[in-house]
Fold:
Amino acid sequence: MGGDPPAARQHRPAGRPPARPGVEHQGAPGGVMTTDGERRRLALEKKRERYVWIYLGYFLFGIHIVAFVMMYAVTHAK
Structure:
């Protein structure tokens, strides 16, 4: 049983880690001027993501309605 205590954890130094090999520095997000086409693409992507969340909400709501109807049917069966 027992044994030696675990080794002390080593923490990362403060600040940003150095860039990994093969990864180019991209700078601050949103700091680069975007083209009109890229703005439209980002707006369309945001719109589609919103639709996905709306459809997911309706789907989960529908599942709960079906579950409550089934529970009602089971508890009131003769």
